[in-house]
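Narrative of accomplishments. A recurring question from our advisory board has been how the design workflow behaves on a single, concrete structure rather than in aggregate. To address it, we present the structure tokens for one chain from the evaluation set, followed by the sequence designed for it. No filtering or post-editing was applied between the two.
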């Protein structure tokens, strides 16, 4: 195994990790922004108002994106396992 191969494997793992996290993080960010604007406009400073909508939205995003996420993980794992002979050389 060369240094370039290890760096390539690490870069691909980081890329897959970011792709897997992106849907939930994006939805959480958008909902947090909307709730913050709502709180600023209405001057309601309730702590649960910031967490409950985010949790619900992130769970919905997880359920919606789950088939794509599973497909991405299976594809990455399959490619990793198929490349094992190349890594051993």
């Amino acid at each position: 195994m060369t240094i370039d191969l290890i760096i390539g494997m690490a870069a691909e793992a980081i890329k897959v990790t970011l792709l897997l996290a992106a849907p939930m993080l994006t939805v959480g960010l958008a909902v947090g922004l909307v709730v913050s604007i709502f709180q600023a406009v209405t001057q309601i400073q309730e702590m649960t108002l910031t967490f409950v909508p985010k949790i619900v939205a992130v769970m919905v995003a997880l359920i919606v994106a789950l088939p794509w996420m599973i497909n991405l993980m299976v594809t990455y794992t399959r490619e990793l396992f198929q490349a094992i002979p190349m890594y051993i050389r």
